[in-house]
Write a structure and sequence with these properties.
heterodimer; A: 254 residues; six-stranded mixed β-sheet; 12 strands; 20% helix; B: 6% strand
Chain lengths: 254, 172
């Protein structure tokens, strides 16, 4: 048997160091901590020029356990409502709670839930092609300013005035989206009028003191960007489900 | 803990309350006595202090009177430690329907609903504080005796009478 030639090869090791909380030495106050709550959303729009929301689904995950799962809907015809009712009667929520009922709420009720979880409780909102889903939930849009200049500013939350007209709610933040390219986008909340004291507490604050002028930027995760970061490939939802071994992936709307 | 035994009605609202309470007292805040529940800690106080320690330092009682069915439904109160009042029982009441909790019109049916909900919350609290620790103690004690005396340590002792009765295995 001939002697094998021993050659040295350059190797690269990728390391993800995890700092312990007690040893954390932050040079700035802007370190990111994984939020304990996650809201996963997906929407389906009508196939017309306006692309109004038809139906959407959400899962609220807390400490790696699904606490709530449900559907929300836009303006449905009576036939669509019947179909939705039939679907919810036949399917259960994938939660660990005893009441495994699939919750069905209106778009307005879902927007309230979104505000409570994503802005007030600072949960992470997750979706594939997230800007698209956020735009489907929007009441109005405008060109964004400042950091997001060149992007879109979506107003999701509204109120009904004395004349019965639906108006954008200035006491709720808007969501700005700026595309960097087709794989990546910047997403964040804008400031809002009269924020509560607890909304002015910066992320990761150890004192819990409100900081005047602080704007919570939000935690948004676009799975398209994550897929690209992990596999260096631009996925569709179907191809991403196939690539990452999701058994019950995207099945299309019927 | 009580909420773990009996799932919350509205998981999202409970999460929001918990997140806001944790943010108000600051990241990783804990009282010198070891109290870590954000609802029991006093916001914007440095170093962090819990309600019980603050009351004690001020020479006040660390025991609260808790309206078990909410003040709007029943005047009956029970004495509970202030930290548990804030972190367990009031938090549990926040999960009730607002109409039951406030009962603005004074409906007798909502008052009855409040009494039922309050009774359940109080019982769960007492189960956790008064019973669950005994179960944990017994489990730890069994493990300790097993190590010290070996398997079947209860055979031939006064404790044997409490051993579960088993059918003898059928011989083949």
């Amino acid at each position: 048997m001939p002697n094998p030639e021993i050659r040295s090869l350059p190797i690269a090791v990728r390391v993800y160091p995890q700092q312990l909380f007690g040893e954390m030495v932050s040079r700035s106050n802007t370190f990111w901590m994984e939020p304990p709550g996650i809201l996963v959303i997906h929407t389906v729009a009508r196939r017309d020029a306006r692309q109004k929301l038809l139906i959407g689904s959400y899962q609220f995950i807390e400490s790696d356990r699904c606490r709530e799962e449900g559907l929300f809907y836009g303006d449905l015809s009576s036939a669509e409502s019947r179909r939705l009712k039939k679907y919810t009667a036949q399917h259960f929520a994938n939660t660990d709670s005893r009441a495994r009922r699939l919750r069905v709420i209106t778009q307005r009720e879902f927007l309230k839930l979104l505000y409570e979880l994503v802005y007030k409780a600072r949960c992470l909102v997750v979706g594939f092609n997230l800007p698209l889903h956020l735009s489907r939930l929007a009441f109005d849009s405008a060109p964004a300013r400042g950091f997001f200049a060149g992007g879109f500013s979506f107003g999701l939350w509204t109120y009904t005035d004395k004349k019965g007209r639906e108006r954008p709610n200035k006491f709720r933040p808007r969501i700005c989206v700026k595309y960097i390219d087709r794989k990546r986008s910047l997403i964040g909340f804008t400031a809002r009028n009269s924020p509560d004291q607890e909304d002015l507490i910066p992320e990761g604050s150890r004192s819990g003191e409100p900081k005047p002028g602080y704007r919570f930027p939000g935690h948004f995760l676009d799975l398209r960007t994550l897929g690209f970061a992990l596999a260096d490939e631009v996925f569709s939802l179907e191809s991403a489900c196939a690539a990452f071994g999701v058994e019950l992936g995207h099945q299309g709307a019927s | 803990m009580t909420r773990e035994i009996f799932p919350t009605r509205n998981a999202a609202a409970a999460h929001r309350r918990k997140s806001v309470a944790a943010r108000r007292v600051g990241l990783g805040a804990a009282c010198a006595c070891g109290e870590k529940r954000p609802e029991a800690l006093i916001p914007n106080v440095n170093p962090p202090i819990c309600a019980a320690c603050q009351r004690t330092a001020l020479g006040k009682s660390a025991v609260d009177k808790h309206h078990f069915a909410s003040k709007a439904n029943n005047a009956t109160t029970i004495h509970v430690p202030v930290n548990d009042h804030r972190a367990e029982l009031s938090t549990a009441q926040a999960d009730w329907p607002q109409s039951t909790l406030r009962n603005i019109e004074g409906s007798p049916l909502l008052a009855a609903a409040g009494c039922v909900r309050g009774f359940v919350d109080t019982i769960l609290y007492l189960i956790e504080r008064g019973l669950l620790w005994i179960a944990e103690l017994l489990e730890n004690l069994d493990e300790f005796l097993m190590k010290q005396l070996g398997p079947g340590w209860w055979i031939g002792t006064e404790v044997e009478q409490f051993a579960p009765k088993r059918k003898p295995h059928a011989k083949s």
